[in-house]
Amino acid sequence: MTISDVVEHYKLKDPEHWGAQGYIYLLYSLALATNAQLIYEIGVNGARSTHAFLCAMQITGGQLWSCDVVDYDHRVTDEKLRKHWGFFHTPAAEWRKSLSSQCDIVFIDGHHNYEFVSEDVENFWPFVKKGGLMVLHDTKYMERGPGEVFRELKEQGVEIIDLPTQHGIAVARK
Ligand SMILES: C[S@@+](CC[C@H](N)C(=O)[O-])C[C@H]1O[C@@H](n2cnc3c(N)ncnc32)[C@H](O)[C@@H]1O
């Protein structure tokens, strides 16, 4: 499965879905641009981000590890993509206790309340390797959750930008 197949699969070809296309291509490009070997993803549900990252992992040879409180293991069916995927059916705060490796990208798209997003950032930022990325979704969609966390990180001097692509995506570099 390629990234174009993903756009086709989610029926995002029409102009009305350009924002969603941008979301998928952006995540894919970030993973490729950093030659990511390990990505941690919080929140699978529709698995758009999951598929975007996995298409990049096919090229870099890396691994995407995802967690969710709901068992979404069935969301990825493509066998070639599954070789690059690890799914963990556990809340992010618990999952992080079992992790030890530093990663290239952390993607935070779990529970969107301010408290959860803050906690995810606090828990997972230490796992981002120097020069790696932390990506927050829905910074525009949920101003009080991810949007507020984005503003706090910026005030703290973290190198971070907020992009308008589908519901807002903030990208921080460590
Ligand atoms: C917005 S959806 C993710 C969408 C997905 N990234 C995509 O692009 O299709 C949010 C997901 O976060 C999950 N979630 C909520 N709280 C969580 C937590 N504490 N730990 C892990 N996942 C959580 C929800 O079950 C839901 O599946």
What features would you describe in this structure?
- This protein is an alpha/beta fold.
- The chain has a single domain, classed as Vaccinia Virus protein VP39 (Rossmann fold).
- The protein is 39% helix and 24% strand.
- The protein has a 7-stranded mixed beta sheet with strand order 3-2-1-4-5-7-6, with helices on both faces.
- Strand 6 and strand 7 form a beta hairpin.
- Helix 6 crosses helix 7.
- The protein is globular, with a radius of gyration of 15 Å.
- The N and C termini lie far apart (31 Å).
- The model has no long low-confidence stretch (mean pLDDT 95).
- The chain binds S-adenosylmethionine.
- S-adenosylmethionine binds next to helix 3 and strand 2.
Key words describing this protein structure:
7 strands; alpha/beta; seven-stranded mixed β-sheet; binds S-adenosylmethionine; 174 residues
Q: What's the CATH architecture name?
A: 3-Layer(aba) Sandwich
Sheet with most strands: strand arrangement: 3-2-1-4-5-7-6
Small molecules in complex: S-adenosylmethionine
Approximately how much helix is present in the residues? 25-40%
The total of helices stands at: 7
Distance between the termini: 31 Å
